[in-house]
């Protein structure tokens, strides 16, 4: 009986290519970080030895990492989990790894993307973060990149045209405000997000637009938050201290709305008896807050899937698509009611 042929090992490839086993590994997993001459030698050695020929040779020919990076501003925020789930669904179908990078607002998001994309460790990026480093947008013209939920703000000559998938945040905020106006509320305070987020400016613009359309420009009022439960709680406590509560509160996201309701109820204020509260996003906790939160629903899993589909198309050679705005819905729960007239 003929003995079975010995399978080629990474050491065999390294000896034939005249490089280290570590260099072979890098050539197979992240070809962008080794020289073209070294890649060619490793490719030839893989072919001659038959070492994992189907997967390794294919990866080298395509010069792909078969991985994408997802840049998230706050992994602790439950809003992002369902988007990432949608991304993962398509990634599994394509055999693509998902590298999640937690990049806090104000952090070095641009540098992190450069490290991964320029080094060839990822084929493209899904950016759920609207605040890249200065210069990153211009450099990003050469990357396969899709912005998700948050668009990158314009930055003059550095502005780049990226594909984008998300809701129309200005329209969603305007609809939330109009919903409160439709309930008879006139003194509507807007609790904003952090100043360095494009979502903050877009949602504030929607609030202002709806108030002005209703002839309530003189009633415009806002307080600052940072998208966290704690900031919503703090803002509502400050309102309580003034003794001058609005009819209704439109919070720029659900976490702040939940924090605000906690402070209001704890201060003896009835929600929605004394004040209506509406959020935006429809995170999982919104339906289980006390009271359950009226909000604007983003179809986050769908957004993640559409964004991943767009990125995979770009990786396969397609040009960036025009921005895609996914429809949002008003979800009415128990935190809002008709304004009392007496």
Q: Helix fraction?
A: 40-55%
Structural class category? alpha/beta
As for the CATH topology of the largest domain, it is Rossmann fold
Oligomer: single chain
Amino- and carboxy-terminal Cα gap: 98 Å
Order of helices and strands: HHHHEHEHEHEEHEHEHEHEEHEE
**Highest CATH level, the class of the largest domain:** Alpha Beta
CATH H-level homologous superfamily name of the largest domain? Response regulator
Net shape: elongated
Known CATH architecture of the largest domain: 3-Layer(aba) Sandwich
Outline the structure in words.
One of its GO terms (molecular function) is transcription cis-regulatory region binding. Keywords: DNA-binding, Repressor, Transcription, Transcription regulation. It comes from Pseudooceanicola lipolyticus. Residues 8-62 form the HTH lacI-type domain. The protein is α/β, with parallel strands linked by helices and 342 residues long. It contains 12 helices and 12 strands. The protein has 3 domains: 10-62, no CATH class; 67-166 and 300-325, Response regulator (Rossmann fold, 3-Layer(aba) Sandwich), CATH 3.40.50.2300; 169-297, Rossmann fold (3-Layer(aba) Sandwich). 42% of the residues lie in helices and 14% in strands. Strand 8, helix 11 (254-266) and strand 9 (276-278) form a beta-alpha-beta unit. Helix 1 packs across helix 2 and helix 3 (36-49) runs antiparallel to helix 4. The longest helix has 16 residues, at 79-94. The radius of gyration is 25 Å and the shape is elongated. The termini are far apart.
